[in-house]
Amino acid sequence: MLEAFHSTERGNLQESTIRGSFDLDPELVWVDLISPTHDEQQWVLEAYSQNLPTLKSLEDISASARYYRDDDGVLHISTYFLTKNRQSQADHEEDSAGQILVSAQTVAFILHKNRLFTLRGQKMVSFRAFRARAHRNDYDMDYKDPVWILLGLLEAKLDELADILEDVHKDLEACTTEVLNNHHREYHLDLDDMVTRLAQQDDVLGKAQLCLIDLRRVLNFLSRPRALGSHIYDVDLRELNEDVRSLVEHNAFLFQKVRFLLDTTSGFINTEQSDIIKRFSVISSMLAPPMLIASIYGMNVDGLPMAQGLYSFVIVGAIIVMVFFAPIFYFRRRGWL
Fold first, then answer.
1. Does CATH place domain 273-334 in 1.20.58?
2. Among 45, 99, 125, 212, which one has the highest count of C-beta atoms within 10 angstroms of its own C-beta?
3. Third-level CATH fold of 2-272
4. Widest CA span of the chain, in angstroms?
5. Cα–Cα distance between 235 and 223 in angstroms, integer?
6. Start-end ranges of CATH 1.20.58 in the chain?
7. For the stretch 247-274, what's the b/e string if a residue is b when 16 or more beta carbons lie within 10 angstroms of its beta carbon?
8. In this model, does residue 183 exceed pLDDT 60?
9. pTM, 2 dp
């Protein structure tokens, strides 16, 4: 899928219809390719003489080659975008955000002269949000300069990360209430399910941390004097860096909260298992004396006291009942039951 955009006189972005390489005119400032076919990549090559990497090569690219400017002066950036797993959302649409799984997808940015190329494997919320904002031109930007498109997409990525962390925080607050509420935990909460939910949150936070660290490296690269060729972008780069720093700190706080809840939930699971073992131990202690007496009087041996007689069965039965209930009173007095 290939989508292209041009800048109007007001500076906002408008989508252009692309049916072939002949529609890729020099006025286009942004060409967005989503899982492009070979023909669509060929259109870009014919129109702009720009080779594009394959989606598979984006996943294999080394970290040292993710941000660079080639010999022709073309800027290449490959960075991670966090995307929500749609299938998990559909399966748990009535659940909280904690059931949402995410994946980190690599997106390639190629800044070629006065045009930005983006290559990605699937549709993303952050791209859709930026397109809507750029169409309205909320910030009164001049998108004839493709660098503003690049920075706008990085800002939209940061906004999406912030939304995901906010969802995680809300779900962790709900998890905290469920775990620390004694009545709810004892009668309603499935602790194994809670561990699974917290593990999912830990996975989301880990991938968010990956994207934030990667974005910080991208911004540090773009902040170099000759990366973008102008200082007019420095203020926006500094603001993005500050936002990344604050989200990294918030992400670290959420990590600690997840670890606390995991440790607490695991402790309650261990306590429940200890209680079960204790109950079995108490029951065994309660049954041991009656079984011993019953087994002695069940032997075919003459001369046992109260083994013969009219009321011997009643007397022995009363002794068995007494030695059965005696440990119960003792255990209750000691607080073991």
1. yes
2. 212
3. Beta Polymerase; domain 2 (3.30.460)
4. 116
5. 10
6. 273-334
7. bbebbeebbebbeebbebbeebeeeeee
8. yes
9. 0.77
